[in-house]
Amino acid sequence: MQKSTIPPKEKPLPRGVYCPVISLYKPTARQEIDLDAMYKHCQFLVRGGQHGLVYQGTNGEAVLLSPEEKISVIKTVRKAVTDLGVPDYPIVAGISGQSTNESIQLAEDAAKAGASFALLLPPSFWAKSVTEEALLGFYRDVADASPLPVVIYNFPGVTSGIDLNSDDLSALASHPNIVGVKLTCGNVGKAVRLTSKFTPAQFSVYGGSSDFLFPTLEAGGVGCVTGMANVFPKSTSRVYDLWIAGKKEESKRLQDIVANAEWACKKSLALTKFAAGYFAGKKLGLTDPKTFFPRKPYLPANEKMQKWTIETMGVLLEEEEKIPDKVFGKVVNGTH
């Protein structure tokens, strides 16, 4: 096995736990984006210790949002972190389009709106046409034109089974504007193959959920992107913080609880959104359950699954309540 000799990236994605933030809507027939709710939720997540935030990914229902809505959300959350006193806080924007041109346009929009990095799924509408040549060309062309550093997003479950293997990712890692990968495929072996070749400065490897964060870190990865953080931001980031501090036994103990709680998030986005409303909504002053509904045509969780979610994720509530909020230099009341 040979270590890579590619140069370090000019702007690597900072290490840590990132929340792929859900989209929150007004309780109206058209479910317009609720920017005030997004502002409050953003500050809640940052105070909860998240090391960065991802908007307009899968949990953000990116395919259901218009380009204009995406821009307004990024502008809103950049203001939220600036008002909180951390203007340079990492904001990652999803730029996944079905064409190279669309993805480049989304990257340009995100950069103008205030995003720091871009997250990119492979195209998948005509899955049989996405050959290896087309796939590598897509990422290179978008990265060539993107004003933001690009993080590859590998999630076969939402891309008609298209799965970048470790050879594909190794080939793309040499691009100067491709800085890392989010492995929602859950393939720890793939993570090990990549971390054995590349340093984090060359190409960073992130797990796609917090239920295998500890193994990801042990394997040489540098963090994760986890929907669970929408509900329990403190506990998910704490697994990482304890590991970094060398408190591995404590980290593993908390990881075990997090992994069991995250099982609900694996079932559906509707359950993640319900849990965010149930466990965090009151803290944010967001008490209308419809704020946390998926956007139509997708449906909210039924009563049976809601009850199961409360029981499954509730195992983490005590841990979450024990962890204090992060305090920043500027205090705001959570509104515009």
From TrEMBL:
Protein known as: Aldolase
Pfam families for this protein: DHDPS
Source species, domain of life: Eukaryota
GO molecular function, one term: 4-hydroxy-tetrahydrodipicolinate synthase activity
Native source species: Mollisia scopiformis
Gene3D superfamilies: Aldolase class I (3.20.20.70)
InterPro entries hit by this protein: Aldolase_TIM, DapA-like
